[in-house]
Design brief:
7-stranded mixed sheet, globular, 10 helices, alpha/beta
């Protein structure tokens, strides 16, 4: 949706699980073959957690800022070490995490259709020779891409889920992607809702192919109007070490948030 801007939600609890797991997946690579990394919904790459958008919701206070200002669970430490120096003025989103973790031989393609976010993304990482930024629909655009001979492909999919149509779009796209790239690693982010509207989609995705599902929920105020109460990732073809780290992150966050 072109109305969505992630700056209102950057660094929140959903981001914490999402970005910590992505960091674990990318940092678990042991070298060797170059990587072709693709994001279908990239956002702006870096977020100011002290600007007007972030202040309007205050969601980062219970997310990354809480972890940085408390005794955070051990599985979160590698990711927190990566975000601690610039936060809160320059919280790294997934494109910045990827650009920092991937090597000189790797390629990165970032899709971002929102005009304002696309400009900001270009300002953030556009001078990196490894990166191509495309103002296009990420689902359709990604399916036109192929890894080069000798490359490992990793796709990260993080739509806004502003409407139920976003879930339908992911459900339609994922089997095509798995068939299109039979050896690629595919990492999807899913929101978890109070009304469990994501349950059918989660079951469908888990039946498509074996993969790891790592999620955590947090307590919610009955008077709070937000529908979101958790965050999860689904990763197909992730190495065992990365999958184990994602599960450990989710379990640690579940325990941490339950005490809040």
């Amino acid at each position: 949706m072109l109305s969505y801007q992630h700056g209102f939600h950057a660094g929140n609890r959903a981001d914490v699980l999402k970005h910590a797991c992505l960091h674990a997946i990318l940092s678990s690579r042991s070298g060797g073959r170059p990587v072709f990394y693709v994001e279908t919904h990239a956002g702006r790459g870096v977020y100011d957690l002290q600007n007007a958008q972030a202040a309007k919701t205050g969601e980062a206070r219970d997310g990354v800022l809480d972890l940085l200002n408390s005794t955070a669970p051990k599985p979160l430490q590698p990711w927190l070490d990566a975000v601690r120096p610039p936060t809160p003025k320059a919280y790294p989103g997934s494109p910045k995490l990827a650009s920092d973790l991937l090597g000189d031989r790797d390629r990165i393609v970032l899709f971002e259709l929102h005009p304002t976010e696309n400009v900001a993304l270009t300002d953030t990482v556009g001078t990196d020779d490894r990166i191509q930024i495309k103002k296009a629909d990420g689902y359709a655009g990604a399916l036109k891409l192929s890894p080069r001979r000798g490359e490992d492909m990793i796709l990260f999919v993080d739509p806004s889920y502003e409407t139920l149509r976003d879930m339908d779009a992911l459900a339609a796209w994922t089997p095509r992607a798995l068939k299109r790239w039979p050896r690629a690693m595919l990492v999807l982010w899913l929101p978890l809702y109070r009304d469990e509207r994501e349950t059918e989609l989660g079951a469908y995705l888990s039946d498509l192919e074996d993969g790891v599902i790592a999620g955590a929920r947090w307590p919610t105020d009955p008077l709070d109007e937000t529908a979101l109460e958790g965050s999860a990732i689904v990763a197909y073809r992730a190495p065992d070490a990365a999958a184990s780290k994602c599960v450990a992150i989710a379990n640690a966050l579940q325990a941490h948030w339950s005490d809040r």
